[in-house]
Structure formats: structure tokens, C-alpha cells
Write a structure and sequence with these properties.
The complex is a heterodimer of chains A (about 400) and B (about 475). Chain A has about 400 residues and is of the alpha/beta class. Chain A contains twelve helices and 17 strands. Chain A has helices at about 1-5, 10-20, 115-130, 150-165, 180-185, 215-235, 240-245, 285-290, 300-305, 315-350, 355-380, 395-405, and strands spanning about 30-35, 40-50, 55-60, 65-70, 75-80, 100-110, 140-145, 170-180, 190-200, 205-210, 210-215, 250-255, 260-265, 270-275, 280, 295, 310-315. In chain A, helix 3 packs parallel to helix 4 (about 150-165), helix 3 (about 115-130) runs antiparallel to helix 10 (about 315-350) and helix 10 packs antiparallel against helix 11 (about 355-380). With about 475 residues, chain B is an alpha/beta fold. Helix content of chain B is about 35%, strand content about 25%. In chain B, helix 3 (about 190-205) links the parallel strand 10 and strand 11 (about 210-220). The longest helix of chain B has 25 residues, at about 460-484. Chain B is elongated. The termini of chain B are far apart. Mean pLDDT of chain B is about 80; it is low at about 1-30, about 60-65 and about 90-110. Classes of the chains: A alpha/beta (about 400), B alpha/beta (about 475).
Chain lengths: ~400, ~475
């Protein structure tokens, strides 16, 4: 649940702790002291401020790390406290010899606009660009998503299969992975669960005016076949994913060595999913039935479970990009909705304008809104739909043309 | 019950019970009880009913509840002592009673290391009266009242605030729940609980705050939160459950329904497992969906669960049906359901204890203090917590009076908005539109204040902004028409 719902503060605490293992970055002649409402005190340099939230560069000895602190976490800020004797230093990252380098990338919210293949590529690209001594050995994809677009899941899986797995040890760490999010994680060989974690419920469906409709026919068969392949790439029995997608009886035996034997009927000792239900595993069962490796709640526990005696967190920029990406998409969704409504009002006003001057004025307003909308889609490209849907290139061209016609 | 001014002046003179272990109640023919001594040192007194090759079958009383037949594995037992104990010798039971509420002596004897209990009762509608803002404020008040937050170094000069480890056991927040979510939400109150859950988790897991839930009534969304604590108590009449059956979920497609139900269970199970309740998922299934069978039996004092109909032999061997499938012959008829509803599980105080969800039954503040093992050495502290929630509820109620969209009793601002007529001269129309926009802005500002309750997605505020924009546009066109 937390899922949804891990506290920002605890994430921050962990991030700060992890930051201690890194070194680097610009020194500060003056520091800012941020007091959080929960008593935490953070020292660093405020790099920028957006809507009350601050981007704080935390400097600890030779180490620095940038963190975003939401406005509602902040109690007070002391600015520009003089620190005598501190001089700027060059970036000199130091990783202890022999330590395993782990990068964490959070993948959250809806698959498609937020949990997005291109955004993942960008994050991993940032890791690729790191000097070899800072490049991670392991990438942990920290998933908390209720699912989303099936088409995006295909892109994510192909990217993980072709570009990530051959180069990195890639691991899923699951808070909640429902539907397309579960399918996206399925390609990875190693899945770890948070205590409250869940994975499953992969039935494809569409919303219609009168309710929902499960995917069926050729479309469904293709999706089932695809996930059979994905199960193979992730080294899992295809029955398990199938029971998450459609009705089927799934039972299992657990052998003495811990191996799980699956049955597509009720002949196994454990009834995992009866014929009339769709499977979602909670954390304990995911581990019990071998879908996940272990239940771990902290980065430290995860590192231990991954077999890393000594480890450091690296590549913070990869996740910072994800956070910024999601923030942009969220803001863009709100703005696009608002601007779309305003655009419609301006068009209506132009159509009902009592004079040519007023009509042209309203068209001008509408075109300004349309330009702003294009700007938001550029900032959040995952919101661009394929032609001819709203926010697609052809949709913008059509609206622009209609506005020109209206102005004539 | 208000905790603000509660100063408990009691001494525990007449305890029927002392701990959470089962009380021996039944006796053998000579009046003495039999005793089992376990390998782990645990002792259980009761009446030996049967001995098989592998098990002892004991009749044990738990407090005031009916006797329970419990089976203990011989492999776990060090020794069986027959007729070993006089019935009155041992007073263990789960029921924690205090018959003396007015004795100053205990307070006088209190030492400076007394445990401090911050008791707050959350009443009303979960998600509305009990919401993020007052809950956060309450925990700020908890920190203020206890004054026990210490800085914990993270290394390198960074610090975090945690509860002083030396005081964690003795500074206790008891949250008494007497609330339910909007029954129209039913099980989907879980999504509201998922917003409030992290606030509790942050306190317990990150900060080390000891939080205890005391259940009087916790339904729908409110039925999830307590699982996050390892310490749950019930009142005698306490109940926890769901008002709706997930079986009735209907999105228009049967398989999509199953997917959505499955995902909801995935989240719900997370609450139980996060709190360490390994049997929680099976219990929650039976609470939320009538098609699940749930039977239990006690083995070695621990519950075992079975998610199917037990056979006749199994029932004779101690398996007790808690919920049936609710279908066909098992469907509870309306009249029968009043007394003997078992299509879905509602956790009452006895059952919650037997199933390991609750640690005991407490009906008074003294009971809960005793259950928390702080005995006579405790104090219920004064605090603002209750007032924080009351003020929040009052504000919500007041806001509703202004912005309710109920057709029967529309809010005052909407009434005023609807009274405005945009007619007359251009200046009259302009003024009228100005008033309309002002009212809409006021409404939007109120919604903004309570958006966590009424408008988490921001859609309502967005619609209000759109209405304002529409009025502006109408004014622009009117103005343009004047120019012609």
C-alpha cells in the first residue's frame, strides 16, 4: 500500500542515507538549513524552488546529492547560513572497491503516460553515460502501478529484454504491480516483493459507454501468446500469467527442494486460482509459489537478498529524471484538460460573436490556447496519442485548420 | 468518550484476569484442572478430553467466552500433568476487566517513569471526518505532548526525528475507532485507507511510534487501517467488517469484475501482511466476499484456517465453519441473517481474538491500560487530538452547509448563485456575472480546502473554473455586442 503509498519522508530519509555512500560535487560557501515537520533537519544548498517545493543539494563532506522536498513537508528554512572555510570542490565520485553498485528507478502510476518505455530508456541512458566506475551493476525497477495501456507494456518488455537485461542485472521490486505493470515486470528474471506488495490481475479490457468489456477473440489470443513468450524470457511457467489474464484453474505442488510444479487443473496440492477467478498474488504467496525471490522492505534488505555484502547506491539522476517526468506529465494532464475546455469556450464564443472583430479576437484566444496545449504535449511527450486521437500531430493540425477557417 | 480531560484515577483491585493466555475454567471430576507444559515454557490449564497418538484435546475457557476445544500437538508438549491445578489458582484470560474506576491510590503510587497514553476516539465518517489533515495534525500534537522526538543521526550531519528508543514502549497512542466509510463506497473505502495508511506507517515504521487500535466499530474503509498495527483490541461489542459484498461488484463484464476484485484483494491483503497478520488475507477474503468458505480450529492455542467446506469428520475433529459460500442452500435468508449472518465474516471481539487479529477485549480505559501491560503505572495525557478532529468535522459540516449540491438542501452559496438573474441593463448584467463569478470562486476555495475529502482528483475545482470561464466569455460577448 502504500502502495500507493510510501511516505515521501521515509523515501527521503533512505535517499539521504544512501547519499552518504556517494561522493562529489560543488561545495558551498553558504548553506541552507531545512527543518522538516517531522523533526528532520537537512543542510545543503537550495538550487531552485517550485511552488513551495525545494530542490536541495545536500553536501556531506565531499558528498552531494540533490533531493526534491515537497512544500507540505517543510516546517522552516534558514537561508544562507555562513560556513567558514568551505571551498568549492570538483566532482570526485568515489566508490569503495569491491562494492556492488545499485541504481534504483521508480516506475509509478499509469503504464503509458507515466510508466513509459521512452522515459525508461532515458533513465537507463543516463546510467549508460556514467563513467564506468560509477555505472551500476544492478538496476532495480521499483514498481508501484495499477496498470494501464497494453501497447506500452509491449514496448517496455521489448526494451527490457533487448537493451537492459543483456547489459545489467535487472530486478523488479514491487510495491504494487497490477495488470500492465505486472506484465511489464514479468520479463525480468528476478522479482522481489515489498511486504504489502501485490502482482497480477492482468485481464485486458476496455471501457465502453455501458460498462467494461474483457478482451476477446484474436486480440486476446495474441496477448496470451505474447505473455507466454514473456514468461519464457522471465523464466516463469506460462500458466501463472495465464491465470492472471483469463479464467483457468491453477494449482501447484511444492516439491521438497522448493521447486513449484504447476497444473492447469485442480490436481496440485495447493489451489492457487480457481476456475472462476483471476489471480493476484500477495507478497507471501508470490514467494511461496516461486514467482518472487523474497519479501524485502528496505533497500538494505534488498541488497542483502541480492547477495551484495557491500553495496552503494549510484545513478540517482536516473530516478530523478523519472520523478521529474511524472511531475511534468501530471501537470500537463491538468493543464491540457483546462486548456481544452478553454479552447472549446473560445471557439463557441467565436462562433456566436456579434462582430467579425470579436470573432477574430476569440479565434486568436483559441489559437493561443492551442499553442499552449502543443507546448504541454512537447513537455510531456507520453501524452501524445497516435493519429487521429486528441493530442496527436494530426489532431493539432485539424484544430488549427478549423480555427483558420473560422477566422475567414 | 473524550480523552481530553481524562485523568484515570483507578487502581486495578478486582481483576478477573491478568494476561492474554487462556484461562483454565473447566475442571476434572475432582475439581482440579489438567496442565500442559510446552517445550517453549508455555503453560495451559484446562480439562483433558481426549488423547490421541499425536494430540491432546483440551477444553479451555477464554475469559467469558464459551469453552473451546483446542488440540495440541504432542511434539510440542514437554509434560502433561493431570489434576494438577485448582481452578481458582490461575487467573489468566483475555478479558481485561477493571471494577474499580475511582481510586486515587494508584495515581499516588505512580512513579515518574509512568507510561503515558494518548487516547483519541475517532468517530464519524472515515475519509471525511477522519481525514489526512486532522490525522497529521494529531500526530504533530502527539509529538508535542510526549516531547519524545530525538534526532537520529543518519551520518554526515544529516538527522531525522524518531521517538526516543527509551520511551517507545511507554509513550502509547491509542486510537479508538467508532467509524465507517461512506457505505456507498463499501470495499472501495480501501482507496481512502490507502491515502491514510502511509501516515500511520510513517509513525510506526519510520519513527518508531507505538500505536494501538481499539475497535468499537470499524467498517468499510475504516476496517483496513487497524491491520497496520500489531496491537489491536476490541470492545466486547466491537465489530469490524464491510457493508457490501464484493460478489455484487458489477462493471458490466464478469471476467473484468474478477480482475478488479482480484486487484482490490491484492491491495487489501497488503494491509494485513504489512502489519504482520499472516492469516489476514484469508480472513479479509471471507469478510469481503460471500463465496469464500472459512473454517477454523485451534491447534496449540493458535488458529488454523481452511478455505473450503470442512467434511463431517473434520467438523467432528474441531473445525468450525465461520462463513459458508452464501449460495443456494447456504444463502442466509433475511430473517436468519439478522441473528446468524454467516455469508460474510464480521469480526466480533471473541472471534477477532481467536483468529489472532485482536490481542484482547477491553471495555474501559483502565482495561486498555492494563492490556497494554502498563498496569497501575500509567497516565492518560491531556491533548488536543480530540479537538483537532472535532474542529475538522465542524469545518466540514459548515462547509457543506455552504456548498452542498443536494437538491433537497442546497448549500447557501449555491442558493445565492441560483437567485442571481443576469438581466436588465448591460451594467446590471455585468454586475450579476461578477457576483456569480465571486460565488463560484468562494465555492472553489472551500472545495480546495477540503479537496482531500471531496475532490482529490481536482475535477470538481476544474469544473468550477470552467463555469467561471464560461461566464467571463459571456461577458466578453455581451461587451462586444455593446460596441456594435
Amino acid at each position: 500500500m502504500r502502495s500507493l503509498f510510501r511516505s515521501l519522508r521515509s523515501l527521503l530519509t533512505v535517499a539521504v542515507a544512501m547519499a552518504l555512500m556517494l561522493t562529489a560535487a560543488p561545495g558551498a560557501l553558504a548553506k541552507d538549513v531545512v527543518h522538516l515537520k517531522d523533526g528532520t533537519v537537512l543542510e545543503g544548498t537550495i538550487k531552485r524552488e517550485v511552488g513551495g517545493a525545494i530542490f536541495l543539494v545536500i553536501k556531506i563532506g565531499d558528498l552531494t546529492h540533490e533531493k526534491i522536498i515537497p512544500a507540505d513537508e517543510i516546517k522552516s528554512i534558514e537561508r544562507d547560513i555562513a560556513v567558514p572555510g568551505e571551498e568549492p570542490t570538483a566532482e570526485t565520485p568515489v566508490i569503495p572497491a569491491g562494492a556492488t553498485k545499485i541504481a534504483f528507478i521508480t516506475l509509478e502510476e499509469m503504464v503509458g503516460p507515466f510508466f513509459n518505455a521512452k522515459a525508461m530508456e532515458h533513465s537507463v541512458g543516463l546510467l549508460d553515460e556514467l563513467p564506468e566506475e560509477q555505472r551500476p551493476d544492478i538496476i532495480v525497477f521499483q514498481i508501484n502501478s495499477g496498470g494501464g495501456a497494453l501497447i506500452e507494456q509491449h514496448r517496455i518488455i521489448e526494451y527490457l529484454r533487448d537493451e537492459v537485461k543483456p547489459r545489467y542485472r535487472a530486478v523488479a521490486w514491487i510495491d504494487s504491480a497490477i495488470s500492465a505493470a505486472a506484465m511489464s515486470a514479468w520479463v525480468l528474471d528476478e522479482i522481489y516483493m515489498m511486504k504489502q506488495g501485490n502482482i497480477g490481475a492482468c485481464t485486458g479490457f476496455r471501457n465502453l459507454a455501458g460498462g467494461t468489456e474483457a478482451m476477446e477473440g484474436v486480440e486476446l489470443e495474441r496477448e496470451l501468446m505474447w505473455m507466454e513468450q514473456v514468461s519464457g524470457w522471465g523464466k516463469r511457467d506460462p500458466y501463472v500469467m495465464r491465470a492472471m489474464q483469463v479464467y483457468m484453474t491453477l494449482s501447484a505442488d511444492i516439491e521438497e527442494d522448493g521447486d513449484v510444479v504447476w497444473y492447469d487443473d485442480d490436481s496440485g496440492e495447493y489451489m492457487v486460482s480457481p476456475q472462476d477467478q483471476i489471480l493476484t498474488f500477495h507478497s507471501h504467496d508470490a514467494v511461496k509459489f516461486g514467482v518472487a525471490e523474497a519479501v524485502v522492505d528496505t533497500k538494505e534488505e534488498l541488497a542483502r537478498a541480492l547477495g551484495c555484502e557491500e553495496w552503494v547506491e549510484v545513478g540517482f539522476e536516473a530516478d530523478e529524471y523519472q520523478q521529474e517526468f511524472r511531475e511534468n506529465v501530471g501537470r500537463a494532464q491538468v493543464k491540457l484538460n483546462e486548456l481544452g475546455n478553454k479552447l472549446q469556450l473560445a471557439v463557441s464564443a467565436a462562433q456566436g460573436a456579434p462582430s467579425a472583430d470579436e470573432r477574430n479576437r476569440q479565434v486568436g484566444v483559441a489559437r493561443r490556447y492551442l499553442r499552449e496545449m502543443k507546448g504541454w504535449v512537447n513537455r510531456a511527450p507520453s501524452l501524445e496519442n497516435p493519429d487521429p486521437w486528441p493530442y496527436s500531430p494530426s489532431w493539432f493540425r485539424d484544430i488549427d485548420r478549423q480555427l483558420r477557417d473560422l477566422a475567414r | 468518550m473524550s480523552a481530553c480531560n481524562v485523568r484515570v484515577l483507578v487502581v486495578l483491585l478486582a481483576l478477573f484476569t491478568l494476561s492474554l493466555a487462556p484461562q483454565a475454567f473447566a475442571s476434572s471430576e475432582d475439581g482440579n484442572l489438567d496442565r500442559l507444559i510446552f517445550l517453549n515454557g508455555r503453560v495451559v490449564d484446562g480439562e483433558l478430553l481426549e488423547e490421541t497418538a499425536t494430540e491432546y484435546v483440551f477444553r479451555v475457557h477464554y475469559g467469558n467466552m464459551p469453552p473451546v476445544e483446542t488440540r495440541y500437538r504432542k511434539t510440542e508438549v514437554l509434560e502433561l500433568q493431570l489434576d494438577a491445578v485448582a481452578p481458582a489458582e490461575d487467573g489468566d484470560a483475555i478479558r481485561i476487566l477493571d471494577n474499580d474506576d475511582d481510586n486515587d491510590d494508584a495515581r499516588k503510587e505512580r512513579n515518574p517513569n509512568a507510561a503515558l497514553i494518548y487516547l483519541v476516539e475517532l468517530e464519524g465518517s472515515f475519509g471525511s471526518d477522519i481525514s489526512d489533515t486532522p490525522l497529521r495534525e494529531m500526530f504533530e500534537d502527539v509529538d508535542r505532548v510526549f516531547g519524545d522526538i530525538v534526532s537520529q543521526p543518519l551520518g554526515g550531519g544529516a538527522m531525522t526525528g524518531v521517538v526516543d528508543p527509551a520511551k517507545r514502549d511507554k509513550h502509547i497512542v491509542v486510537i479508538k475507532l467508532n467509524c465507517e466509510a461512506d457505505p456507498r463506497l463499501g470495499f472501495d473505502g480501501i482507496f481512502r485507507a490507502e491515502q491514510l495508511g502511509p501516515i500511520i506507517e510513517e509513525q510506526t515504521q519510520t519513527k518508531g511510534r507505538r500505536i494501538v487500535f481499539w475497535i468499537d466499530r470499524a467498517f468499510d474503509g475504516a476496517a483496513f487501517l487497524p491491520w497496520l498495527s500489531r496491537e489491536i483490541y476490541f470492545t466486547t461489542d466491537g465489530a469490524m467488517g464491510f457493508s457490501q459484498d464484493l460478489e455484487d461488484f458489477d462493471s458490466g463484464d464478469d471476467m473484468v469484475d474478477e480482475k478488479l476484485i482480484s486487484a482490490r484483494f491484492g491491495h487489501a491483503h497488503g494491509f494485513a501482511l504489512d502489519g504482520g497478520y499472516v492469516l489476514g488475507p484469508e480472513i479479509i477474503n471471507a469478510m469481503a466476499r460471500r463465496s469464500y468458505w472459512l473454517a477454523y480450529r485451534m491447534v496449540g492455542g493458535e488458529p488454523e484456517l481452511m478455505q473450503r467446506k470442512p467434511t463431517a469428520d473434520e467438523q467432528r475433529a474441531g473445525w468450525v465453519v465461520l462463513t459458508d459460500s452464501g449460495d443456494g442452500e447456504y444463502k442466509d435468508e433475511e430473517l436468519e441473517a439478522v441473528r446468524n449472518f454467516n455469508d460474510r465474516l464480521i469480526l466480533g471481539s471473541d472471534l477477532a481474538y481467536k483468529l489472532g487479529v485482536s490481542k484482547g477485549i477491553c471495555d474501559s480505559e483502565a482495561d486498555i491500560a492494563h492490556a497494554l501491560r502498563v498496569h497501575r503505572n500509567y497516565e492518560f495525557v491531556d491533548h488536543r487530538g480530540q479537538r483537532i478532529f472535532e474542529e475538522w468535522s465542524d469545518s466540514i459540516e459548515n462547509a457543506l452547509r455552504q456548498i452542498s449540491q443536494s437538491q433537497q438542501t442546497p448549500g447557501m452559496l449555491w442558493e445565492e448563485f441560483n437567485r442571481i438573474r443576469v438581466d436588465g441593463s448591460y451594467n446590471d448584467r455585468k454586475r450579476a456575472r461578477g457576483r456569480q463569478m465571486n460565488i463560484l470562486r468562494q465555492i472553489r476555495s472551500i472545495v480546495k480546502r477540503f479537496e482531500e475529502v471531496w475532490d482529490p482528483s481536482g475535477n470538481f475545482q476544474s469544473n468550477l473554473s470552467l463555469q467561471i470561464e464560461q461566464i467571463k466569455k459571456a461577458q466578453e460577448l455581451d461587451k462586444a455586442a455593446q460596441r456594435r
